[in-house]
Amino acid sequence: MATNRVTPRSRNLAHILLGASILVGGGTLAAPAALAETAGHSPLSAPSTEVVKTANVAKTPLELQAERLPKVTASQVLDIAARQIGISENAQGGGTKFQSWYMSSPRARETLARDGGNVADYANAPWCAMFVSWVGDQAGIRPTMGWDAYTVAYAQWFKDNGHWGDVAKPGAVVFYDWQGGKDISGIDHVGFVKKDNGDGTISTIEGNTGNGKVEARVRPKSQVVGYGYPVYSG
């Protein structure tokens, strides 16, 4: 298996850096940013310094965003992700609905402005982050799930918004470094946590893994860089 990753500032998003990995083929590519639909501003840009206190409990910007969104649980998001298990890319590494959706979204233009390349480059690009983004969009919680194709920037967005940590909660977005590093800059792959197995592993649902499919996996926590926490109800 090979780890593939498309780097920011590359003028060709199809440029792939290969690294050996016996566990997977996950991909990284592009970071959540603007969402024009939500109150006319961008919840995925740099986090606001505004903190609102209700009943002496401070709310993060993402928690404030969640108040204007449907009430969605982690179980509902995992159910959407699980229904995609078995979907596979084509021989060129593309052809999934996740890539097609991302290419048609306004976010693709934003990440191209950041990273360079052309929209068509996403057609066969690593799609693990696009899968996570698509699930959040289908659940109606894109402003608190984020959307991107580059996993390093995706993870950094969670951290910048104060929704980053080291606890494997169900529904959390899990970011991996196959070499076991703990720096966001080394992230190779992303998926959803289904559960912490209590034995040093986690059960997950991931896109662009194995032979380019959506699959349920069991991963060692030693390869986890950290977890991003969308805002769920209940």
UniProtKB/TrEMBL annotation:
InterPro entries: CHAP_dom. Residues 122-208 form the Peptidase C51 domain. It comes from the Bacteria. It holds the Pfam family CHAP. Keywords: Signal. Residues 1-30 form the signal peptide. This is Peptidase C51 domain-containing protein. It comes from Streptosporangium album. The lineage of its organism: Bacteria, Bacillati, Actinomycetota, Actinomycetes, Streptosporangiales.
